[in-house]
Each structure stands twice: as structure tokens, then as C-alpha cells.
Amino acid sequence: MPGTAYLVAGRTRLGVFVTGVTVTLLGTAAYVGLTRRDDVIKWALDPNLLLWIIAGLAVVALLWVTIVVTSYKMLRPLGSGLGARLGGSFVIGLVCCTIASGTALGAQNLLAQRDLVTHVFADGNSKSATRPTIANKKDPWAQLPRLNLLLLGADDGAGRQGTRTDTVMVASIDTRTGDTKLISLTRNFMRMPFPKDSPLHKFYPTGFWDPQKGDVEQDAFYLDAMYRNIPKLHDGILGPSDNQGADILKVSVGEALGLKLHYYLQINLSGFEQMVEALGGITVNINYPVPVGGDDDKHIPPGRYLKPGPNRHLNGFDALWFARGRYQVPGADLARQARQHCTIKALVERATPQNVLANYQSIAKAGEKLIRTDIPQNLLPQFVGLGQRVKSAKISNVDLDKKKNFPNGRNPNYAAMREIVANALAPKTKPVAKATNKPTGKVTPHQPSTETGDLESSCAYDPQ
Description:
Elements: H1 4-8, H2 12-35, H3 37-44, H4 47-75, H5 82-120, E1 146-154, E2 165-174, E3 180-185, H6 199-203, H7 223-233, H8 244-257, E4 263-268, H9 269-278, E5 282-286, E6 290-292, E7 304-306, E8 309-314, H10 316-324, H11 332-350, H12 353-358, H13 360-370, E9 371-373, H14 380-392, E10 395-398, H15 402-405, H16 414-425, E11 452-454, H17 455-458
Parallel strand pairs: 1-4, 3-10
Antiparallel strand pairs: 1-2, 2-3, 4-9, 5-8, 6-7, 10-11
Helix pairs in contact: 3-14, 4-5, 5-13, 7-8, 9-10, 9-13, 10-11
């Protein structure tokens, strides 16, 4: 305890002062950490305040080293031999190095945190055509009882021409409980709709496709081509934006599902591998051989397969292909969507506080390369709190019913999908009909399925 050595050496006033300050600082830190957790999170997400915290760490470390050295000088025996003095100096030097290295590690983590916040999350100068205006920034969830987050998996990287969003998913989160519904859209959907009040509806009143070509596959009008193609055709049509493709997808995907999408989170798949590596890998159940590589269109077979098995621990490269592989997999896109849901579940489980803290610098570095988003910096504390609720809540899948609503992607039944989503997010209780023996002559209309798949069971080991 800093200061107690001064008491032993007879420097009572100095010892009482230093010990009192130490006890006060430790008690205050414990009180703040236990009772003002939201404030601590807010401080850790403020780039300017993080610089002051780093400076404060350096000052505390310097004072601590000074106390250790002066305490030793006051207490060492004056008549000790050379060996004792060298031994004592070595121990004190080791203690000082420990203090300095611990401080340096803390400062490096805080700098990594600051870089992550400033590089990834939007500040006051960012532009978004679709981001909501939040009136109460202390409690945004009062305004947004259900948060709809668009998740995009982009394949941009070296050797790629433009960006395709092969993964398009919506996470609809109950902000009170953290319960989350995952809704995936297939990459080859055509005729993606736009709201009537959107300027894009004027150009595509029947959805994003070319009617003159007829009811044929139009890969330039697929969902996964909208991100790169529409900004080229209609630059700036939605207004100022840092990411036009994401804003366009928020509007169109929201219309397709009957939801207002509030923010987007875009994942660069080349950075996904680094993130999984930074977390130390993920553990999943593999129920059938998953191809690593391969190209269906060019008939190039994969180099190998991920073997089936329970609790398979995957490194970053294999985790990427677990989420992406589809070469000759039955129901390729839907199977891949299911595995992507399980990948998200595995990442949530892997991101324990201990694991994140132990690997924070590498996680933050990967995050800078991995993530684009329009979530503003001033809402990060609230998003962190919501993320903690999601981690301990239920994550489930909403089935859009491929057999009935999109047996192919050329003309999906978006109206039926909207009904499924609405019933899944806010199930309606059906009134109990009175028993009668008289035939009514009416045909009961088809009721869309609102069943959602619990990821705990759908991601379990069940070999096929």
C-alpha cells in the first residue's frame, strides 16, 4: 500500500497523507465502477476524455514509482553490504518496471480504443440520408422500443471490382429485453421495392429490375448488386451520404420487410478473418461438409471441406468459409444464411469481457478494418448497454418461407414476407371461434407462418 513505508520510517504526516490519498483513490474507483457503470462506459467512448485518462495514468505511475523508490531509500539498512544493496535495488527496479509496463499496456489499450471510436463510428460531421434523429440521447430506446439494424456482409477487397453485399440481414432488437430476431434476404432477389415517398420509386415503381427484359434472371438487378450499381446510376439521389449503397439498401430492405431500418453495420469479409483470430477463434457445430473455396459458376471445386462434428473450433480463415461456403451445398443460399446466423451466435458467445480485454488491441485493430456504420459516437454508451442485454437474451431466426414466397428470386412475394415479419415481431392472438356444426361455406385463408427458429436448437449438432 503506497504510503505505509513512510509510516514505518517515522515520516508520520507524509505517510498518513499518501496512505489516505491511496485509500481514497481506490475507494472512489471501486464506488464508481460498481455504482456508475454507465458513466464509466461513456468515458471510455469519449475520444477527448480518453486522452486525459491516458495522461492521468502516466501521472499516477510516475508518482507510484517515486513513492516506491523513496520508501526503499528510507527503509534500507545503512550498514547493509554490497550484495544486499544490489538485491534490494533489483527488487525495487523490478517493481518499478512492473508499474511502468502495466501503465504502458493500459495506455496502449486506451489508444486502441480511441482509434476504434474515431475511425469507425460517425461523429458530428458525418453524413447520412437515412439515420434517425434522436431527441433523447440519454435514453434513445424510449424513442426506439425496437431497433432495426441492417447487417451487410461486403466482399470488397484486393482484386475485386466494386463491392457486392452477398450477405443482407436485419437484426430486429427489442431494446427492453435484448431479444433479437434475425431476418435474412437472399442475394439474388430481384424487384426490390422502394417506398412511394422515395425518389427511387420514380425510377423503379415496380421494384429494382428491367421490365423490358421480361421475367428472366437479371444479375445486374440482384439485391447483392444494388450497393454498387444504384449509386452509379443515381448518384446522390437520397441526399448527402458517407455510404450511398448502405443508405439505399436501408430504404429498400426496410420496404421489403415492412420495417423502418435505423442504422447499418457493414462487415468487410476480408477483415472478418482478423476479428475471429483476435478473439481466439469460434466454436460451432458442423452438420455437413462445408466447402472451403470453390466456384459453382466456373465449376471450380473447393480445395477442401470443413468436416462435420460437434463443437468444432475454427480459426479465422475456416470461420469465414463456414459463413460463406456454398459450392454444391443443397439450398446453397438458405444453408449459408443459416450458418451465418450460427456464426453470429458463436461470436456473441466468444466475446466475453475477459477474452475481449485480454486481446483488446488486436480486436480494435481488426475492428477498424472490419466495420463501417452510421451509428453515431454520442449513442455508443447506449449501444454498449443494449449489446450486453442482447448477449444474455434470446436470438432467433424469422423464416420468410422460401417455398411459397420466393421459389426463385425473380419475383418474390414481398407482401407475404412483410406479413410474416409483422406477425413474428408482434404476434397477434387469434380469437377462439365458437363451436358450431353448421358449415359456413367459407374457405379459411392461408395464415403465414410466424414460427421463429431458436438458434440454440437450429445451431445444435444434428448431422445430416
